[in-house]
Amino acid sequence: MIHNVIIIGSGPAGYTAALYNARADLKPVLFAGLQPGGQLMITTEVENYPGFPQGILGPELMELFKKQVEHFGTDVRQEEVIRVDFSQRPFRVYTETEEHQAKSIIICTGASAKWLGLPSEVTFGGFGVSACATCDGFFFRNKQVVVVGGGDTAMEEANYLTRHASKVYVVHRRHEFRASKIMQDRVLSNPKIEVVWNAGLDEILGVTEPGKKVTGVRLMDTTNGEKREMPVDGVFIAIGHKPNTDLFKGILHMDEYGYLKTVPGTTRTNIPGVFAAGDVQDSVYRQAITAAGSGCMAALDAERFLDGGDHGWS
Questions:
Q1: How would you class 167 by CB atoms within 10 Å of its CB: exposed for 0-12, middle for 13-18, buried for 19 or more?
Q2: pLDDT of residue 208
Q3: pLDDT per residue over 179-213, tens digit each?
């Protein structure tokens, strides 16, 4: 059987693409992957997605997305795509057990935040530990937080957090930042930010009963190994993101960081009939709402392709 559309990956981009394609009676097949629902599955409270005035839990929001796309006829499969072949039409997509063929492909595999690898990052993930200031900064109004990192991502996160937090500590392993000068200057001139040089995050401290919360961090001096504790309410890991694009290396055009390149103003990749949406091609915004929007764009682009536009299916 040759499907009209196969969507690789879920999350807001994948589910929105599926919703539009399903309502267009294209009967899309969506492979949800190893982390169905994307990064929102590890997000506790979502307050910046329209339509939920009281906020909503990330996993609950993704479950609603899933139910909606299934209601309109999307075939959601809890399988991982392990290989693709875009060298011929129909396109080939492989799981552990089967080969699947499709006239068009929408890639929504997202991006993953880079972590330090501390077990406490997992323990307190969503309960005081985050990798997205614009997502979670609001929860730290008038509180003290730590940002770990020294690149542009860390500078952006630290500056943004000063809108909410009373104090922001930037913890960096070296004696100088890697960030661009203009971003460094903004941090170093901000009175609400204090830089802790030559320090690494050794441990995130907190309690798990009666409820999980971060109470502080343990830092290690990178010059002499000495350790000290600092009381804070939140920890933001800002050492970058990695797009989940290993599957497409050597096949689709990527930027220097591995994000899929799309034609400006569209979701088209370098291969006609293959589209990309969400964080897998967005290194700037990385929000649920922007991912959903680009998922809609990809669905419409795929529909036009199937109708014969944009070097469409024939």
A1: middle
A2: 92
A3: 989 999 999 999 999 999 999 999 999 999 889 99
For the question of residue 296 being annotated catalytic, the response is: no
Tens of pLDDT, residue by residue over 114-131, are 899 999 999 999 999 999
- The one-letter code for the residue type at 65 is F
Is 135 designated active site? Answer: yes
From 25, 85, 108, 136, active-site residue: 136
Q: Is 67 exposed, middle or buried (0-12, 13-18, 19+ CB in 10 A)?
A: exposed
What pLDDT, in 10s, does the model give residues 59-77?
899 999 999 999 999 999 9
Which one from 108, 135, 279, 282 is the annotated catalytic residue? 135
185 is catalytic: no
Show Cβ contacts of residue 245 under 8 Å, excluding neighbours closer than 6 positions: 109, 252, 254, 258, 259, 260, 280
Whether residue 106 contacts residue 17, with contact meaning beta carbons closer than 8 Å, is answered with yes
Per DSSP (E only), the strands in the chain are 2-8, 29-31, 45-46, 56-57, 75-77, 83-85, 91-94, 99-107, 111-113, 129-130, 144-148, 167-171, 193-196, 199-207, 213-221, 227-231, 234-237, 241-243, 274-276
Both tokens of 107, joined, read 């890639």
Q: What is the pLDDT of residues 163-184, one digit of tens each?
A: 999 999 999 999 999 998 999 9
The β-bridge relationship of strands 2-8 and 29-31 is parallel
Selecting among 132, 202, 279, 301, the annotated active-site residue is 132
